[in-house]
């Protein structure tokens, strides 16, 4: 990293996220409010780059943007450790397990519908007792 402050465009390139995403992260408290130049431009440093990289990693693990902001905030104010923050990952894991259960249930229903279709009872077409009129 450079050790120097960078404007939002350079920061965007350094982190691989768009300028709009940088602003979004600032609004959602993922990034702390950036200091500004006399001209009003936001400036960022290497710590901010590392913070965005950690935020992206947490999002890839399944944390929502609010959960990411809370986790980073806990680190900032409480000196969070793996021991004090493990519950966040356990919460995400439980959410993923619930989603997997729902997806398995949906897959089962789809397979039943495919089997019904194969036996002439298609679930994709509405049945009417009346004959179509010409």
Outline the secondary-structure elements.
Layout: E1 6-7, H1 8-15, H2 19-27, E2 43-44, H3 46-60, H4 65-78, H5 82-118
Antiparallel strand pairs: 1-2
Quaternary organisation: single chain
Rounded Rg: 25 Å
Number of helical segments?
A: 5
- Low-pLDDT residue intervals, each spanning 5 or more residues: none
Query: How is the main sheet built?
Result: 2 strands, antiparallel
CATH fold topology of the largest domain: Multidrug-efflux Transporter Regulator, Chain: A, Domain 2
Class based on secondary structure composition and strand pairing: mainly alpha
Mean model confidence by pLDDT: 90
Specify the overall morphology.
elongated
Q: Termini separation (Å)?
A: 74 Å
The level 1 CATH classification of the largest domain is: Mainly Alpha
**CATH architecture label name of the largest domain:** Orthogonal Bundle
Strand content: under 5%
Helix content: 55-70%
Give the number of DSSP strands: 2
Q: What's the structural domain tally?
A: 2
Largest beta sheet: strand ordering? 1-2
H/E series:
EHHEHHH
Task: Walk me through this protein's architecture.
The protein is mainly α and about 130 residues long. The protein folds into two domains: about 1-80, Multidrug-efflux Transporter Regulator, Chain: A, Domain 2 (Orthogonal Bundle), CATH 1.10.1660.10; about 80-120. Helix content is about 60%, strand content about 5%. It is built from five helices and two strands. The chain has helices at about 10-15, 20-25, 45-60, 65-80, 80-120, and strands at about 5, 45. The chain has a two-stranded antiparallel ribbon with strand order 1-2. Helix 3 packs across helix 4 (about 65-80). The longest helix is centred in the last third of the chain and has 37 residues, at about 80-120. The radius of gyration is 25 Å and the shape is elongated.
């Amino acid at each position: 990293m450079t050790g120097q402050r960078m404007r939002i465009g350079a920061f965007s390139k350094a982190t691989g996220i768009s300028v709009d995403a940088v602003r979004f992260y600032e609004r959602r408290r993922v990034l702390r409010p950036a200091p500004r130049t006399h001209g009003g431009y936001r400036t960022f440093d290497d710590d901010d780059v590392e913070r965005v990289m950690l935020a992206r990693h947490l999002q890839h693990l399944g944390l929502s943007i609010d959960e990411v902001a809370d986790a980073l905030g806990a680190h900032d104010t409480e000196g969070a450790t793996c021991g004090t923050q493990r519950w966040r990952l356990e919460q995400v894991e439980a959410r993923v397990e619930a989603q997997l259960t729902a997806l398995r249930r949906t897959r089962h229903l789809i397979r039943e519908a495919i089997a019904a279709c194969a036996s002439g009872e298609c679930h994709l077409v509405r049945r009417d007792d009346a004959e179509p009129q010409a």
